[in-house]
Design brief:
By secondary structure, this protein is mostly helical. The protein has one domain (6-76). It is 71% helix and 0% strand. It has two helices and no strands. It has helices at 6-19, 36-76. The longest helix has 41 residues, at 36-76. It is flat and about 55 Å long.
């Protein structure tokens, strides 16, 4: 199978919004569902927590990788 060209991958989100508008609707994390004020604030809180978890996980993985590379480098020298 041929790989998709980079230009097509760049425009894929826009094409999905045009041809599949249901995919452009916000998810349940952003809009909590039942009661708008309570649900909205709960959804916003969950979205912030998820964003923080992802950010700290990436930073932790980066730090761990750097530590492993340095440990391997020190063992080989």
């Amino acid at each position: 199978m041929k790989e998709l060209p980079f230009r097509l991958l760049r425009f894929l989100p826009f094409l999905s919004i045009l041809f599949l508008p249901a995919t452009a609707w916000p998810c349940a994390v952003c809009f909590g569902g039942k009661g708008m004020p309570t649900g909205f604030y709960r959804g916003f809180f969950i979205a912030v927590i998820v964003t923080l978890i992802i950010t700290f996980s990436l930073i932790g993985a980066l730090v761990r990788t750097i530590m492993q590379v340095e440990k391997h480098r020190a063992a080989n020298s």
